[in-house]
Amino acid sequence: MENYYAALNYTETLENDKDHIMVQIQRHGHKESVTINAMIDSGATEDFIDREVCNKHGIKMIKAKNPREIYLADGKRSAMGPVTHMTKVPMDISSHRELATFQVATLQNHEVILGMPWLREHNPTIDWNDKRITFNSERCTTWCLKSSPVAYAVPEVKALEENLITRFSKIQDPNGPTAKSGQTANDQTVTVKKLCIEARVPMKGSARAPGHDLYANEGTDVPARGEAIVRTGIAIGLPNNTYGQIAPRSSLAVRHRLTTNAGVIDSDYRGEVKVVLANLGDQSYRVQKGDRIAQLIIEKIENRELQQPSWTIPKEGNKDSGARTPQLTKRSRAGRPNQKWKSTRYQQEPSDNSTEEERQQAL
Fold first, then answer.
1. What does the pLDDT look like over 29-42, one tens digit per residue?
2. Is the pTM of this model over 0.85?
3. Architecture of domain 3-168
4. How far apart are CA 142 and CA 123, in angstroms?
5. Strand 292-300 to strand 212-215: parallel, antiparallel, or no bridges (unpaired)?
């Protein structure tokens, strides 16, 4: 069964603000209750919740019998899918309480999307101009409402900013976070924070790709035989004992002779990720906003402290080193090589007049 998610592209960016509004909801999970902003979208054919949100807040997911792909309005497959799980979550919108059913998907810019199934079930009256939702259906007045039937929308820019704060906030671990990064020693989560709404979260080009593509958040020119610093508009939080490597993209290297410089991100760095693009060619290159400019590869490392040793390195020619170096000369007529041992600590040089017993002792 195909699931068409109309009006959304791969980053769920909506151009028409007349078919969706943002509303504040309170979700009740097994671990905690979380207040977040959901998008009511009349163009969505399903109700969605972000997989990362479920994992973070302990929302139990139920495996679907038949996994489904998600398709855009133009028929292309969406990066949100496939849908392999669903969940049921107690949810409040103002005084309206319900047990909502969601399809679990990989959402980039939204945590919860209330689509046509939710709209048909509750049939609220929505004033798209005044951004007001009134739960006045018979179902809602009988079962869902505790008091006032009216809920008001949240300005979209404010809603998205609040969602970013919630998405990248930390849940306290009972073992306590590390002092520097705020992550526990066993936490291997990689977090990505968008510093502006237009920024794009790194994504893999294929399932087995080693790195996540980094996107330019601005347009700039990389001069011939020169370099330019390109902003990505994101910050990342890496696990302990890892670092991020900013590596060049093969297509840019082959076609335009573009590579990357200064490509190491420390695990405790929380500033904006910037890419130093170096142009080895004879023609300048124009980077457009949204272009894939590099890839982020996360590498494991062994963090070991360096210590100064108590021993010293012997100087060359030091006779007190105790070393013995045999020097082989021409073989004697008896078939044994004539050996002279250089040793000032333990041995004396055997002379030509030494007996066989003395020679054995010298050896």
1. 666 778 888 999 88
2. no
3. Beta Barrel (2.40)
4. 13
5. antiparallel
